[in-house]
Every structure is written in structure tokens, then in C-alpha cells.
């Protein structure tokens, strides 16, 4: 991906090195974690956020003092790359919203290490990147990109860009009122129905990521050979079916919350090829 020497977003908040590692925090596990996860999904709440909130109660927690954070050259390069991708999403969504007669409110992107507090509660890096509708901010521990490469076999800068654009896609859903409508529907739905609504929401964010790639390529010609394949591979590697099979040897479609590998690839490609909001109607 051609990203060097291009505009870096001013909407980056760098909190790296400010989170505690938690010397003696008790972990929630086993049956308790399962019950919390199922209950959260039933009410349309991201289980990761609820578990993070419970972890923020301070039970058995000790904070270890850390030395001042000094990012390595590689880490700083990743931060700059993230800022360029965020700037591209700003340009894309400002243009699209303007054509729709709307005003796009640019989100902040928070860089953190280990742990972070948001309007959605306490979160740990192990939860992965996330968007918090309560403060309109995207949160990313850049260490996730190494995990994406080594654990999920999804290397490449455009795979990383896809992740950022997906989270910004959730911000777009929030601005358009889609997230609120889905949350309201989930509160009245069965667990299986609530999961399906969550899947549709995530797949739309995938489609919005593809839409971003479509518009940015037309405007700035950022794509290099193999970039699209990197994003498609990333979408495939983090499908619910693949992740569940890796974790326990089998997949349970009724418990999917993000979509299968095939679905995630399909909707990213649809956004990439058609490049319109209408094309990303995963609820139709």
C-alpha cells in the first residue's frame, strides 16, 4: 500500500505506555465467563466490553509503575501508518456524507498499550481493536497487527488498513443511527436472533471497509500488487467459523457474532467493487 509521505490524521490520541499491566488482577473464567458472554449477547452488548467492565472493578488489582514509554522505530512507523489510513477514511467519509447531505463527524483514534479506559469501560489489548459509540472513538493496541500476522496468518499493510477501516465503519453506523436500531431490535430478540443482528452489523462494517478502499483507490491510487488479496485473506482468517474451529475444533453458526470467513470476504468485496452505501445493506 502506498502510504508514505501522505497526510497523517490529526485525530490521533496517543496513550501508549499509560495503561497498567495489572500485577494481581483476578481473571474471570470458566462458567462465569460463559454466562456473562451469553447474557451480554442476548442483550446486544459486546461481551468483550462487559468483561472489561468487570475487570475494571479493581478486585485484586495492583498497578505496577512503568518506565516512560519509548516506541521503537517500527512501532512509530506503525503509528504513522495508522494515522495515514485514518486520514484516508476521513477524506472518504467526508465526501460520501456531503453527497448525502450530511455532515461527517470524524472519530478520534486512540493508540494504547496493554489496557485502556473508554466510555464503554475498561478494555485490555487481548480484546483486539474496538469502537466505542459512547465517546465516538476507535481504540487500537498496535501489537494487534503483529498478532494478525503471526497468529491469524494475515500479514501485510493492507490487511492492517482493513482492520482500521472496519472499526471506522462502526463509527459510520453509529452516525447513521444503524447501531442504535440494531441494539433496540436485539433487546426484543431471542439469543439466536440477536447474534444474527450482530453478524449483519459486523458484515456491514466489512462492506464499509471495502467501500473505503474503493473510494481511496480512485482518489489517491494507493493499491499495490497483492494488497486486495491481503485484505481478503485477513477477512477470511478472522471469520467466526475459522476462529471457533481453531479454538475448539468445531464451529457453531448459531453463536456467530461477526460472520463466517465466506461472508466477511463476500461483503468486503462487495463494498470494494460497488463502492456505494446502498450496496452495503446487509439487513436487506
How does this structure look, described?
By secondary structure, the protein is an alpha/beta fold. The chain has one domain. Helix content is 53%, strand content 8%. It has 10 helices and 6 strands; from the N terminus they run βαααβββββααααααα. It has helices at residues 30-42, 47-55, 73-99, 143-150, 157-175, 178-187, 191-220, 227-237, 240-248, 261-274, and strands at residues 12-14, 108-111, 115-118, 121-124, 130-132, 137-140. Strands 1-2-6-5 form a 4-stranded mixed sheet, covered by helices on one side. Strands 3-4 form a two-stranded antiparallel ribbon. A hairpin with a 2-residue loop joins strand 3 (115-118) and strand 4. The longest helix is centred in the C-terminal third of the chain and has 30 residues, at 191-220.
